[in-house]
Amino acid sequence: MNPTFVKPVLFVAAGSLIGFAAGSQLGTSGSASSSTVPAGVGSSAARSFAPGEEGSLDPASAIDAALAQKDTYQRVKALRRLADRIEPKDVPKVLERLRAKRGDWNYFMVELDLLREWVAVDPKAALAFAERYEGPLRHSVFSTIASAWFEKDRAAAQAWVESLPKGDRRNAAEQGLLAMLGNADIREGIAMLNANPALGNRGGWYSLFSSLAAKDPRRALDAALSLPEGRNRNSAIQAIVSSWGMMDPKAAFSWARQLPPGPARNQAMQQMISTLAWSDPAEAVKAVMTDLPAGSSRSNAIWQVVNQWVQKDQQAAFAWVEKLPPGQLRTQALSSAVRQWGESDPEAAMRYAATIPALSERNSLLGSTLGQWLNQDSTKGLAWLDQNADLIQPAILQNAISHLSYQNPQQAAELLARMPEGDTRLQAAQNLGSQWASNDPAGAEAWLDKMPEGPAKERYLQGLIGGLASYDPATAAERIQRLPAGSTRDNAATQLAASWAGSDPAGALSWALKATEGKTQASAVASIIGQWAHSDIDSAAEFLNTLPSGGMRDNVVQQFSQNAAGSDPETAAEWAATIGEEKARKSALDRVMRQWKRNDEKAAQQWIQSAAVPQEWKDGWMKK
Q1: Which of helix, strand or coil describes residue 32?
Q2: CA 59 – CA 100 distance, rounded (Å)
Q3: ∠ CA(200), CA(435), CA(14), 5° rounding?
Q4: Residues 6 or more apart whose Cβ sits within 8 Å of residue 552
Q5: Side-chain-side CA neighbours of residue 27 (13 Å)
Q6: Phi-psi category of 30—alpha, beta or left, where left has phi over 0 and alpha has psi -120 to 50?
């Protein structure tokens, strides 16, 4: 997804979308979803159509007319007027036409608006259509449907969510429910998140509190400040400030500045600065430098502010960026400025990027701008590439492919074919496979069949499976089983285990224990148990109780105790003591004791004294 659009348009069709962005990679530096849009821009409440548009409507003609607009802002505006007037029976036709425009986030937000209206009339039909979406888009679709259905029939919506199997669909739908619970019953939403920590880790706290803050920021603040200090409370505060800043930026800014130093204040200030940048980017830059500490918070904020500043006053923005001393902050700011310039004049942006003295910075800027240009006008972009072949290094092409992979993967694949053999090409192939499969798995598989045999195809396949694993691990697992035995299959299995563990660790572990073996199984199990013990130690322990005695169980328990020793050494020790094979049991307990004694020697010694283990083991631990 592009970091910015031609105009500052980002339509929030459901509060849960903001939460999803905050809990995933969409909210990282350079992502449009982390921008805060001023009040009134793209608001559902502000939707209307011009006088004289009432009456019969031909969907096909209306869509063609809307898409014929030359300016992105006007196209989206026309589409939203169309969404206001569409009949439920015509929604599928309109959605299909918009789906053909995949890659433009603005169009997708209009799709979500249509789905919200459709589910209020015919939930079953809307749900059936939702199954056509894949990858990250499916998350947003299911979240939107859940929240819209909740408004119409809360009991039916909750029953539907509870009927979904664990996995991506249910995760997304639960996010949608949380967004609505923020308005309906914040206490129920908090209880839901406390009962399901993994849901909170996926942006649930943000979804819950952003919806309440849009309605009553003071009440949302009271609820957030009643939470224990930590990541969940910080996410809640960030959500509140984001929503509050759209309605009353002065009051929200004043409150955020009074927060004590720490992650919660940094996140709150970053949200407020992003809002300020729409109206006064120069003042927003000053706030970045005075109110945010050096590091990722300041760098991310600079990206947003400079991006908006270039749209408002390009000359002033570049003058400020060029005065920054060399370092990460300057690199981030320059990348944002050139990226925005490339939206309007990619050739001029390329000429400017080519003058940057630092090699890595120059390659990064040339690559991202080239990818941007090829996506806008591949004919002119490729012509420039052919004329400047001596300037283009493999790293530049890799950056361009990375930029193109989301919006125009076929163009990225054609660019990959131009790259010389080497490690850079292999890495680019893997990244392309991952990104393409995340958004269009059928297209990614089709391109795989066209690739010639060789290392690049093998790495592309690894990426493809990794992309599938990010949203549909069961399909990825099935794809892995079709691979011949060997390093490609083993690497893909390990990668799948690590990804699957984030959304369904029990399912991931069950699969790894059945479908892998040897070193691959050991690596997969270690990755899954490590993540699970960190995110939800109680649920991980419950799963251990379901395993039959034997070597497989001992291996899993050994990994669990090793990963749990840092956060809950007593639980880790109790489980390590249940390992059947004596040598493995002693080894696992040794590791736990070493770490426990470093952190809390008194508590460790108390456990040792009462433990049902050989006395010689106790003596050894007490001496160490």
Answers
A1: helix
A2: 15
A3: 40
A4: 513
A5: 19
A6: left
- State how far the Cα of 175 lies from the Cα of 161, in Å rounded to an integer: 10
> pLDDT-based confidence at 139, cuts 50/70/90?
confident
Q: Are 542 and 571 in contact, with CB atoms under 8 Å apart?
A: no
What token pair was written down for 284? Answer: 């927003």
Q: What confidence tier does 72 reach under pLDDT thresholds 50, 70, 90?
A: low
Is-contact 88 59, C-beta < 8 A?
A: no
Burial class (CB in 10 A: 0-12, 13-18, 19+), 518: exposed
- What number of CA atoms fall less than 13 Å from residue 478's CA on the CB side? 4
The three-class DSSP label of residue 611 is: coil
Q: How deeply is 340 buried, as exposed, middle or buried, from its count of CB atoms within 10 A (0-12, 13-18, 19+)? A: buried
| Six-digit token string for 396 | 């530049």
In the block, which residue shows the tokens 């921008």? Answer: 35
Give the whole-angstrom CA distance, residue 590 versus residue 596: 10
Q: From CA 223, how far away is CA 248, in angstroms rounded?
A: 19
Please answer whether residues 238 and 224 qualify as being in contact, where contact means their C-beta atoms are separated by less than 8 angstroms.
no
Rounded distance, CA 194 to CA 181, Å?
A: 14
In three-state secondary structure terms, 440 is: coil
Show the tokens assigned to 512: 């790894």
Look at phi and psi of residue 278 and say left if phi exceeds 0, alpha if psi is from -120 to 50, else beta: alpha
pLDDT digits (tens, 9 = 90+) for 246-289: 778 778 888 888 888 887 788 788 878 887 887 788 888 998 89
As a whole number of angstroms, the distance between CA 606 and CA 162 comes to 44
Cβ–Cβ contacts within 10 Å for residue 380, how many?
A: 13
Per-residue pLDDT band for 624 (boundaries 50, 70, 90) equals low
Helix (H, G, I), strand (E, B) or coil at 226: coil
Side chain identity at 51, as an amino acid letter? P
Q: Which amino acid is at 385?
A: L
Q: Is 1 helix (H, G, I), strand (E, B) or coil?
A: coil
Amino acid identity of 451?
A: M
Number of other CB atoms surrounding residue 624 within 10 Å: 9
Q: Cα 359 to chain center, whole Å?
A: 30
Q: What whole-number percentage of the chain has pLDDT above 70? A: 88
Q: Judge residue 608's burial from the number of C-beta atoms within 10 Å of its C-beta, 0-12 exposed, 13-18 middle, 19 or more buried.
A: buried
HSE (side-chain half, CA atoms, 13 Å) at 348: 8
453 C-beta neighbours (distance < 10 Å), count? 7
Report whether 590 contacts 561 (CB < 8 A).
no
Buried b (16+ CB within 10 A) or exposed e, 416-434: bebbeeeebbbbbbbbbbb
Question: What is the per-residue pLDDT across 407-428, written as a single tens digit (0 to 9) for each?
Answer: 789 889 988 988 889 999 999 9
